[in-house]
Specification:
homodimer; 362 residues; 13 helices; globular
Chain lengths: 362, 362
């Protein structure tokens, strides 16, 4: 019987499992968002986030899902008569192009099959042949379990197309995968907290480069809720432009402190170790959906080579163990299934889950 | 010393004090937002909200502050070549006009002094003399402690200007003041949960009439994050278009159940009783800022007739009792101060606070 008060343990690729001690942070007494207590919380949290994504530029907190920042990046940094190149390799990178169009901008598509990577050469060819204000990328495609080679791409962009702004959806990448915002030369990056930050959903974190902020000053009709200039104005007082999701920020503060205590190199290594463990299992029993060289370290999309009934296996494990993993996304349903290995999930958690799956498919 | 982990008890007009048992709802294990557990939570919560605001039309949950729905109402229901009449009587109703303009729409102003009410006659005169697609109102001006006579206004609008869409900011009104959405003939109404719902901030609740939903189908470039058609599509599955603030929705579910158990007439009467208590004190010691016939039942703006140093009194009470009330908003700072009496605040809480203020100003 469905009971939201007794939900399954989550191995879907977001929201992911949240530790009880983290959930407790949400129950702290709330604050006035224009008071000094909030500014203290905000300032502390943003300072830690800057260390987590290696930036000295602006970091903001948005009370929205990360998809709100899809819209913000377009509305603030692309003028109505400019064109954005949208690289598309799965459900979420595909949607970025829809968002650009829903904001009335021209979006040109650079599209590969779901499960394939976007490469530096592909982007270079497109940008060289046209006139683009910006390029959108997804670091880690949650729908296909694929991490694009963003370090190589970014190196090429800095060398060959330094004037093109770079917007990166790092929703299921940030924290779990290396991300040096300033060094990469990105202009906007964003993530939701229900992925590798391992919090319940309801808040997005984003960074904006100084040059993107400068550009936005010249773009009219930026809208209200995602206006980067208003974010910057409020950030100068360690505030948000509109009333923020305070419980999430308290819990984010807690998680950031834990991450920095562990050290980001160690955090990334821990994710890689979990990923390798799941990939070994997947290759032994099925196959990987994405080419192994691009396989994500935060989730694995398993190719259902044995034709198991994925929905039935998920259901059975929910019945027996009150635990779920993810079916394939959209058109990949049943052809693939997805296992998250990010945030506060551990190798021991994964061992238990994979043993349960083994039992069902034996 | 400022310590966000030990914040003052809040009598500012939002966020307001939250009961420990309500805070605990935020610490529940989280859910997958595309799973049946979330749909159950969402469906239950929306059904209760419909009873709370007396509607059989669409009720949606937005992971944003209510100001996001300012933008949504404009982008979805006002075409680029249409004009909206913005009634303005304080900081928040003033801002609604800014938002309309930041979305590239033409906004005509109907402006009275802060602390004065907008009346049916004023709106009738303006609408009769022009061609307007919509009118914006704030039910309860949090900056001035004034409740506009929205029932009279709405009766006039239905009779005289039935084709004009009506958008109502009920941020500090919903739950605390009577609100019969369908009977009033409104098209969009919205509130944040950190006011009379008595939750920490991070979620907005909004309702949209069937005709406004129909209108939005003809409006292009509605944007992405606040696209009402996407909200409707997701609501058919008891979901949200983008990942929702699940902890807030769990706690909102809890609060809605309590409100319906009490009965909305009783909830409104309880707010009125608290308001009368604070108004008596204010009239005895100072004066009301808004004309008494329009004085709000969710917060009182007190006119600082004695020239006390408001900031100093607030500081002293924070030092001694770890409790704060609100200074005046913006240009009304020091000229007024504000005391919230909504949500789970009680007359006993207010007695304690007012006694502390008495002590400071003696």
């Amino acid at each position: 019987m469905t009971d939201w008060k007794n939900p399954p343990k989550l191995f879907i690729p977001g929201p992911v499992h949240v530790l009880p001690e983290v959930l407790e942070q949400f129950a702290r007494p709330t604050l006035g968002h224009r008071g000094k207590e909030y500014s203290q919380l905000h300032g502390e949290t943003v300072e830690m986030l800057k260390k987590i994504i290696f930036t000295e530029q602006s970091v903001f907190l948005s009370t929205s899902s990360a998809s709100g920042v899809w819209e913000g990046s377009i509305r603030n940094c692309v003028a109505m008569d400019e064109t954005v190149l949208c690289t598309m390799c799965g459900a979420f990178s595909d949607k970025y192009a829809d968002v650009a169009r829903s904001c009335g901008r021209k979006a040109e598509e650079l599209k590969v099959e779901w499960g394939q990577a976007i490469t530096a050469d592909m982007i270079d060819a497109k940008l060289s042949a046209g006139n683009y204000a910006a390029v959108t990328m997804v670091y880690n495609e949650t729908s296909t379990g694929l991490a694009n080679p963003v370090y190589e791409i970014s190196k090429m962009l800095k060398e060959e197309h330094p004037d093109v702004l770079v917007f990166v959806d790092a929703v299921s990448a940030m924290v779990g995968l290396p991300l040096h915002f300033d060094e990469l030369g990105w202009d906007v990056v964003f993530a939701s907290v229900q992925k590798a930050f391992a919090l319940p959903p309801g808040l997005a974190v984003f960074a904006v480069s100084d040059r993107a902020m400068e550009k936005s000053k010249s773009v009219p009709d930026r809208g209200y809720y995602f206006d980067f200039l208003q974010f910057a104005k409020a950030a100068a007082k360690n505030q948000t432009p509109t009333t923020p999701a305070i419980p999430h920020i308290m819990a984010l503060n807690y998680q950031c402190a834990r991450l920095l205590e562990e050290g980001m190199e160690n955090v990334w290594a821990r994710h890689k170790k979990m990923a390798e463990f799941v990939r070994e299992w997947a290759k032994k029993n099925f196959d990987l959906f994405a080419p192994e060289e691009y396989a994500s370290d935060t989730l694995t999309a398993v190719k259902n080579t044995r034709g198991i009934n994925v929905a039935e296996v998920i259901n059975a494990i929910q019945q027996k163990h009150n635990t779920i993993f993810g079916n394939g996304y959209g058109k990949l349903k049943e052809q693939t299934f997805r296992i998250a290995h990010m945030g506060d999930i551990t190798v021991d958690d994964l061992k238990e889950l994979l043993a349960w799956i083994d039992e069902e498919i034996a």
